[in-house]
Design brief:
- It is a single chain.
- It is built from two helices and seven strands.
- By secondary structure, it is an alpha+beta fold.
- It has one domain: STM4215-like (2-Layer Sandwich).
- The relative contact order is 0.21.
Amino acid sequence: MATKTVQTTNDGVYIVKALRDFLNKKWTGKMCNIELEKFGKYPPSMMLQQLSGAFIDRKYVDGSYIGIFPFAIYVRVKGESTADTMDAIKQLNDLYHWLIEMDNEEEYINLPVLDNYTESMEFEMSSLPSIVERYSDGIEDYQAIFKLKYMKRRIQL
């Protein structure tokens, strides 16, 4: 049985920065600014992490393609109470609901602008929010995994 080869792209290099900047600027419901690949010094803190790079889901004859950019959002809280735990889980669920919010024409309204040739299409949550680490000092890290589907158009020269 032949296995399908996954074609990766280098799109993640600019998508991750555009996505982080977009979330920090537009998502007013966050508990703090979102860092890239690291937590802030003190909780509460949030981090965006690229997962395994962007890959091509569908390719077209003209060279355009549909890409998938997997990423995780982490929330770090003090973990001193059940309320801290619930706040972290709620924050990740709230993000997902904000990302998939639609207008009256059933169009997504919270999609980042990536560049002139790359258009965001939709978000998907691939895993529900869950705890990923609990430290001896009580700090807890929670994570949800998302995918951004996007269309990369062939550059016309």
